[in-house]
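Lecture 7, part 2: worked example. A protein chain together with GLP.
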Amino acid sequence: MEIIILSSTEEVGETSADVIADVLERSDRPVLGLATGSSPVAAYRALAARTGSGDLDLSDVDAFALDEYVGLPADHEQSYATFIRENVVAPLGLDPARVHVPDGQADDLEAACTDYERAMGDAGGVDLQILGIGANGHIGFNEPTSSLESRTRIKTLAPQTRQDNARFFDVIDDVPRLCVTQGLGTISEARTLMMIAQGEHKAQAVAAAVEGPLSAMCPGSLLQSHRRAIVILDEAAASSLQLADYYRYVYANKPDWQRPRRRAPRG
Ligand code: GLP
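Predicted complex, written out as structure tokens:
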């Protein structure tokens, strides 16, 4: 696991974008795993600046989102389909036909989950999965005690998650109770996992995920068993890590050949 601690939101965005662009440009058939929430927004903004200036072209990228609420129409302002459309597809210049979000409105949700897994496989699997982390350690909507081998399925949101997300809705009763999420087994098949976390309120979850036991009690700890996992943090989110100084030392001494390629901007 590589832990990168940075001092500003802008650096978190630029560094995440460097890794994402490098992985996708090296892939013959690039597939990006998308996350919603505030954590990846700086990365999306940095990528949008590069596609907007013509330095990066993501129009041939297939993309799969992690999760979706059950029961919200796809055009609801709080659906993850809307988030992905507005924050990712248009700004990054993705082809809407190549971007997939789990269907939280299907009559047969289980069949929709199976179809989603199949579509990911048909696309060749995910090259890089972006992840945020919930305050309770969830990734996607895999709440604590989710099976480490779970696949895309229907889950019940933890009360804390509904509370955390209530700020986006008029009243907490409007927050759906069910969701569809890629499973931990699904997520772990991505060839690179990249978790982004910012803010003091994520510090405990980050410490549990990075330095706690590998445990279904903290689904984010799944990264410990992955062959290529990168955790990008701001200082506040890193503030409960015991080995923070060691991670800074490792990153400062990282050989150039291990760093993402940076191409000179055009123009
Ligand atoms: C949400 C999403 C997760 C996200 C997490 C943190 O409920 N389902 O995919 O990573 O909670 O969100 P944020 O980045 O806004 O803190």
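The chain has eight helices and ten strands. The chain has a mean pLDDT of 96. Keep this in mind for problem set question 3.
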